[in-house]
Every structure is written in C-alpha cells, then in structure tokens.
TrEMBL record:
Pathway: Purine metabolism; AMP biosynthesis via salvage pathway; AMP from ADP: step 1/1. Belongs to the adenylate kinase family. This is Adenylate kinase. Residues 126-163 are annotated as: LID. InterPro entries: Adenyl_kin_sub, Adenylat/UMP-CMP_kin, Adenylat_kinase_CS, Adenylate_kinase_lid-dom, P-loop_NTPase. Catalyzes the reversible transfer of the terminal phosphate group between ATP and AMP. Plays an important role in cellular energy homeostasis and in adenine nucleotide metabolism. It is found in: Cytoplasm. It holds the Pfam family ADK. It comes from Gallintestinimicrobium propionicum.
Length: 213
C-alpha cells in the first residue's frame, strides 16, 4: 500500500504517518526528518537544506526529489510506504507519478489531514521534537514521561528552529501557495481522502483506518 499524507505544517501528518506505519507494517518516510537528521549530523545536504528550512521555505525540488527517489528504491519499500511531507509541489508530484507509472504502479491513497490555520500556530509552539529519533511530543496533548526527555531514546527534546511563530506564518503561506494545489491533483486521480485533523489523534487515526481498511 502506497500512501501520501497531505496537510498544512503541524496538521498531524507525522503523528498519523507513524501510526499508519506501525499498523500496516510499511516504512514511514518523512523528507523533513531526513533533512533534520542531515542537519544534526552536519552533512553537506543538511547545510544546504537548512538555508531554506530556517526561513520556512521549501528545499529546491531537484534536491528533494533525488533524496526521495533514492529512499523509495530501498528494499524495505517493496510492499509500500507512507510518505510524510512529500510531494509538496506539483513538480514533485509529477515526478513521483511518472516514476511509479514506469514501474506499472500508483499511489493508493492521498490522505489530507485538514486543520484550519488558526489551530496551527498554537500546535506548533507546543510541539517538542527529538532530533535523534524523530519522535514528536506536545507539551499539552502528548507530553513525554519525563519533561524535556524523549521517551524512546532518552535524548533532549527541542522546539524546532522552524516552529517559531514568524517562521510558522511563512510555512503556512508556502503551504497555501505551493502544496494546497496537490489536493486537486490527487482528487483528479481519484485517490484523495480528507479527514478532520482537529479532533484527538486517536479519532483522526480511526477515520484513517476506516478508509484504509
Ligand atoms: P516537515 O518536517 O515535513 O514539516 P511540516 O510539513 O511543516 O510538517 P510538520 O512536521 O511541522 O507537522 P506534521 O503535520 O507532521 O505534524 P505533527 O504530527 O508533528 O518539513 C520541514 C521543512 O523541511 C519544510 O518547511 C521544508 O523546508 C523542508 N521540506 C520537507 N519536505 C520537503 C519537500 N518535499 N520539498 C521541499 N522542502 C521540504 O503534529 C504537530 C503537533 O501537533 C505535535 O506536537 C503533535 O503532537 C500535535 N498533534 C498532532 N495531532 C494532534 C491532534 N489530533 N490533536 C492535538 N495535537 C496534535
Ligand atoms: Zn528520541
């Protein structure tokens, strides 16, 4: 099963993608996590991506597409995957589509997690992230067992550089301009499913599993 998660920054794509990956036994692939891991490790790719991410801008398509296609070509993706944060532009979606078509394959579902802009800024300021293992928490909704420490790997939790309110506003603008058109793109392909992302995460997940079966 090949699934794409769509939605504004902070809509809960990553939260739901991890739950889907666990339940259906497919890898969770987040381009944002790949970039953040590279930044943490000080790689050349990380340094390049950071220039854009810190301003709330998208990393150029060429770089992002290359990384994503390398990742989905790995063995663990044979039976499917859940993509979180990719595609984010029409050109990215077109490349993915044509690569899958070459393999006689296609995306099964594009799940749009719908959350209005007003809720987003509040969510982001409460998010805490583990840059070591990618786990995500929220100071009110999903607190870690021990304040400031990742339950999974024991690393320190941080407010992401791009979760500061000024940057979140830029990310929302970029989302509306460049990513929202993908809703029409996947509607036309007949695979778009929208779920309400404002309800508690277990309820969002129940709506998603009702779609995926
Ligand atoms: P990326 O990491 O993909 O960020 P994003 O899309 O902005 O998404 P987020 O990770 O911020 O949010 P999310 O929807 O996953 O929400 P989460 O589950 O964490 O990308 C970062 C940057 O990398 C981009 O700005 C860009 O520069 C670059 N990039 C990445 N991919 C790219 C691409 N394809 N092309 C170009 N550039 C790219 O939830 C948010 C918070 O809310 C958490 O604290 C969570 O605990 C909480 N929460 C979740 N669900 C609920 C709920 N139902 N109720 C209450 N709280 C909830
Ligand atoms: Zn961790």
């Amino acid at each position: 099963m090949k699934i794409i998660m769509l939605g504004a920054p902070g809509a809960g794509k990553g939260t739901q993608a991890k739950m889907i990956a666990d339940k259906y036994g497919v890898p969770h692939i987040s381009t944002g996590d790949i970039f953040r891991a590279n930044i943490k490790n000080g790689t050349e790719l990380g340094m390049e991506a950071k220039k854009y991410m810190d301003q709330g801008l998208l990393v150029p398509d060429e770089l992002t597409v290359r990384i994503l296609l390398d990742r989905v070509a790995q063995d663990d993706c044979k039976n499917g995957y859940v993509l979180d944060g990719f595609p984010r532009t029409i050109p990215q979606a077109e490349v993915l589509d044509s690569e899958l078509t070459k393999l006689g394959d296609h995306i099964d579902y594009a799940i749009n997690v719908d959350v209005p802009d007003e809720n987003i800024v509040k969510r982001m300021s409460g998010r805490r992230a583990c840059l070591t293992c990618g786990a995500t928490y929220h100071i009110e909704h999903v607190p870690p067992k021990k304040e400031g420490i990742c339950d999974v790997c024991g690393s320190e939790l941080v407010l992401r550089d791009d979760d500061k309110p000024e940057t979140v506003k830029n990310r929302l603008n970029v989302y509306h301009e460049q990513t929202q058109p993908l809703i029409d793109f996947y509607t036309e392909k007949g695979v778009l499913k929208t779920v309400d992302g404002t309800v508690p995460m277990e309820e969002v997940f129940a709506a998603i599993t009702a779609i995926l079966g």
